[in-house]
Design a protein that fits this description.
alpha/beta; Rossmann fold; binds adenosine-5'-triphosphate; binds magnesium ion; ATP binding; nucleotide-binding; ATPase_dyneun-rel_AAA
């Protein structure tokens, strides 16, 4: 599956909009130039997936995205024999396709992946850069341009779901967080079409809500949710309704907590 975020125009990939928070573009380009795998850490909705889509288009490499979960098997990544018209044929999985094509393979929420999946990554993420395919007896050498990118949210980490040091220490890593207000305001404005002066109080509110993290809410309100709220407002929804729907209800089910969060809305919007 090619990433839907990459638009083709006149044959060339147009990079999806991404406003850098720091030097992450240069770091990713250096990793790509030296064939080094990279791990993107950060809370939900802070721009990790968008960044990868942007970088893939910038580098002109195809992107294969895999959402990891605990049912995902090594065969889902590598490939399997399938019955087609009475014949068994080998069908490459997304990882194998990326290895063959010199593409970027992006493993989203990699901590959710099972042990047998992470083991497959080991020979690919050290200087061997090979993918052994047991079922066919092939040992694929990665085509130049192949790059493994993985992401995870350290906030959800628990003892059962962490990466082993032998896996972690095969990746460079970049720590992401929500953009500072002077970046988040133009990001939300660009994504939603709401003018910056109307986005400003939403971002101010988001940062007040983020300060509540850990007390009553598990995760701070994401850039994604601010974009949702701004999109609803730009579409004509009254501000309070949009905020309740996009920035309060998604954070908590607890009536007391929500009342506390709504007090912050009143503090910002009056
Ligand atoms: N720096 C940025 N430039 C442009 N858009 C951004 C940026 N940061 C966040 N966004 C916006 O935030 C939305 C959410 O970002 P994204 O989907 O990349 O989050 P994520 O970190 O991958 O989250 P998750 O861990 O839940 O998958 C994007 O669709 C985009 O609208
Ligand atoms: Mg993502």
């Amino acid at each position: 599956m090619k990433d839907a975020n990459t638009h083709q125009q006149n044959g060339a990939a147009i990079a999806p909009f991404y406003l850098p928070q720091g030097d992450e573009v240069a770091v990713f380009e250096a990793a790509a130039a030296h064939d080094l795998p990279i791990l993107l850490k950060g809370p939900t909705g802070c721009g990790k997936t968008r960044f990868v889509a942007h970088m893939a288009a910038r580098l002109g490499r195809p992107l294969y995205t895999v959402a990891c979960h605990d049912d995902l098997s090594a065969a889902d990544l590598i490939g399997r024999y399938l019955l087609k018209g009475g014949e068994t044929v080998w069908v490459d999985g997304p990882l194998t396709r990326a290895v063959r094509e010199g593409a970027i393979c992006y493993l989203d929420e990699v901590v959710e992946a099972r042990k047998d999946v992470t083991v497959v990554l080991h020979p690919l993420t050290d200087d061997r850069r090979i993918l052994p395919i047991d079922r066919t007896g092939e040992e694929l050498a990665a085509t130049p341009g192949f790059m493994l990118v993985a992401s995870y949210n350290p906030g959800y980490q628990n003892i059962l779901k962490t990466l082993k040091p032998s896996t972690r220490q095969r990746f460079l890593a970049i720590d992401f967080d929500f953009p500072a207000p002077e970046l988040e305001i133009p990001v939300v404005a660009a994504e939603s079409g709401l003018p910056e002066d109307r986005v400003k109080p939403l971002v101010r509110l988001a940062n007040k809500l983020r300060a509540m993290k850990g007390q009553d809410v598990e995760e701070g309100v994401s850039t994604r949710l601010i974009v949702y709220a701004a999109t609803l407002i730009a579409g004509g929804m009254p501000i309070e309704r949009a905020i309740l729907t996009a920035m309060i209800e998604p954070l908590s089910d607890d009536a007391d907590t929500k009342r506390g969060l709504l007090d912050l809305v009143t503090a910002v919007f009056g």
